[in-house]
C-alpha cells in the first residue's frame, strides 16, 4: 500500500487540504532510485506533528519519503477506506460505520494506534480580559438554542462590538466532532452562524485578528497573539489551564487522544515508521510540539 513516487534528495512532505487522491496505494512498493514513499492523510490538528515526524524520520531513513496531507480526520479515514493512503491521522475515534466500510472495501478491520494526547484549548484574543470559562458556558455559546451571545453575559467588557464571534471547524474535522461530543453532548448540535475554518491554525489566526472572537483548537497551535482560557467542568468550580502537565493528569476537562489508523497490523516500511513514532525519539517530537506523549498519558 506504499505509493510509488519519484523524488529527489529532499523530503516529499506536502501540506494540502484535499479529499484524497486518485489511484490505489500499493503496500511495500518503491519509488524512483529505490525510494520508498508513505502517504499520510487526515487530521488538521495533527498536521504540524505529522510533518515534524516525517522530517525527523527522513533524516534517519533517507530512502523513505513521507507525504503528509491534511483535510480533517474524516477525510483521512475516507482515504484509508478507499486505499489512497497508508496511514490516517485522526483526532477522534473511528466510527462503527467507518469500520464496516474499511472491512467491506479492504477486507480487514482498521487497527487503532494511540500516538499522543492533546488538550483542546479555548482561545480568545490576547486583549480579552476573560481568564476562565466553564463547560456549561461554552455549551451555551456554541450549542443550538444556547443563550449566551454577548461578552457582557460573561461579565466581560470589550471595546466596540459586544457580540461573541464563534469560530469553529468544518464538520469533517475530528476536532469539530470531539468538541460537539465533549462540550455540547451527543444529542445537541452546533448553533448556526459560526465562522468555520478548515484548519486548526486558521482558527487561532482568526481569533488573533478578531477582538470579540472565541475559538477552539489544539493547544499546540497557541501563539502570543491569543490567550488560552482555563476551563472548569461546572460554573463556580476551579478552572484548569490547558497544559501538558494537566493533560497528563487528566485534570483538564477537554483532553483527547490522537490516533493513527492503518489497515490491519502495519507491515514493512509503514510498521517501521509507526514503531519509530511510538519510540522515545518519536514521542519526544510529540512533547516538543506541545502535545502529551502516549507513554505519559
Structural class: alpha/beta
The CATH class of the largest domain is identified as: Alpha Beta
The CATH topology annotation of the largest domain reads as D-Maltodextrin-Binding Protein, domain 2
Uncertain regions spanning at least 5 consecutive residues:
1-32
**Proportion of β residues?**
15-25%
Helices and strands, in order, run as EHEHEHEEHEHEHEEEHEHHE
Q: Say which CATH homologous superfamily of the largest domain is assigned.
A: Periplasmic binding protein-like II
Number of helices: 9
Total beta strand runs: 12
Q: Could you tell me the mean pLDDT? A: 88
Helix content, binned percent: 25-40%
Quick overview:
With 297 residues, the chain is α/β, with parallel strands linked by helices. 30% of the residues lie in helices and 23% in strands.
What features would you describe in this structure?
With 297 residues, the protein is an alpha/beta fold. The protein has two domains: 32-117 and 258-296, Periplasmic binding protein-like II (D-Maltodextrin-Binding Protein, domain 2, 3-Layer(aba) Sandwich); 118-255, D-Maltodextrin-Binding Protein, domain 2 (3-Layer(aba) Sandwich), CATH 3.40.190.10. The protein contains nine helices and twelve strands. The strands form two sheets. Strands 1, 2, 3, 4, 6, 7, 8, 9, 11 and 12 form a ten-stranded mixed beta sheet that branches. Strands 5-10 form a two-stranded parallel sheet. Helix 1 (47-60) links the parallel strand 1 (36-42) and strand 2 (64-71). Helix 2 (73-82) runs parallel beside helix 3. The longest helix has 14 residues, at 47-60. The model is unreliable at 1-32 (pLDDT under 50).
Amino acid at each position: 500500500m506504499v505509493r510509488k513516487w519519484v523524488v529527489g534528495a529532499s523530503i516529499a512532505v506536502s501540506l494540502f487540504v484535499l479529499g484524497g487522491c486518485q489511484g490505489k496505494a500499493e503496500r511495500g512498493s518503491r519509488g524512483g532510485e529505490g525510494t520508498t514513499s508513505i502517504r499520510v492523510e487526515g487530521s488538521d490538528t495533527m498536521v504540524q506533528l505529522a510533518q515534524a515526524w516525517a522530517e525527523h524520520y527522513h533524516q534517519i531513513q533517507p530512502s523513505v519519503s513521507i507525504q503528509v496531507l491534511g483535510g480533517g480526520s474524516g477525510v483521512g479515514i475516507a482515504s484509508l477506506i478507499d486505499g489512497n493512503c497508508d496511514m490516517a491521522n485522526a483526532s477522534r475515534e473511528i466510527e462503527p460505520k467507518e469500520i464496516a466500510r474499511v472491512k467491506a472495501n479492504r477486507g480487514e478491520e482498521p487497527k487503532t494506534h494511540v500516538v499522543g494526547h492533546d488538550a483542546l484549548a479555548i482561545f480568545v484574543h490576547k486583549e480579552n480580559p476573560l481568564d476562565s470559562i466553564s463547560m456549561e458556558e461554552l455549551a451555551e455559546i456554541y450549542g443550538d438554542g444556547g443563550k449566551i451571545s454577548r461578552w457582557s453575559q460573561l461579565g466581560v467588557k470589550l471595546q466596540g462590538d459586544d457580540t461573541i464571534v464563534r469560530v469553529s471547524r468544518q464538520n469533517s474535522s475530528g476536532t469539530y466532532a470531539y468538541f460537539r461530543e465533549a462540550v455540547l453532548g451527543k444529542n445537541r448540535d452546533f448553533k448556526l452562524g459560526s465562522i468555520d475554518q478548515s484548519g486548526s491554525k486558521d482558527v487561532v489566526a482568526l481569533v488573533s485578528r478578531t477582538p470579540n472572537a472565541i475559538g477552539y483548537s489544539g493547544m499546540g497551535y497557541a501563539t502570543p497573539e491569543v490567550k488560552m482560557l482555563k476551563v472548569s467542568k461546572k460554573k463556580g468550580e476551579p478552572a484548569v489551564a490547558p497544559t501538558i502537565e494537566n493533560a497528563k493528569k487528566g485534570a483538564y476537562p477537554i483532553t483527547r487522544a490522537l490516533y493513527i489508523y492503518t489497515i490491519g497490523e502495519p507491515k514493512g516500511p509503514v510498521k517501521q515508521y509507526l514503531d519509530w513514532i511510538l519510540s522515545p525519539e518519536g514521542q519526544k517530537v510529540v512533547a516538543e510540539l506541545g502535545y502529551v506523549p502516549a507513554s505519559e498519558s
